[in-house]
Write the structure tokens for this entry.
Amino acid sequence: MAIQNWSEDILVVELADDPVFTDEIGTLMERMEDEPKDVVLNFAAVSFINSSNVAKLLRLRKDVLNQKRRLLLCDVNSQVWGVFLVTGLDKIFEFTNDVSTALATLQLADQAGERQS
């Protein structure tokens, strides 16, 4: 799994399709218990998500928000994006086009002293 400490406050996670997807999110959630950080999930290698994946993402989102951190999803392909649209999850998750944009978004918010509440 590719969890990269991009900075002191930001983790970048390179996701893959199931069954690795579920394991990666689980490992990330365990890590977040000890080290609250903003998280960028890169979906570039994810070609589909199922209901179990969606449940894991919702749990991760809840955990991240409870820690007053941010979760950004990026590089989501059209098939996966369709699942987010149909389920209405496009309205509760924060999306960017790519990792660079996600990192810039987090850094700008940090400089402005903003935190998700």
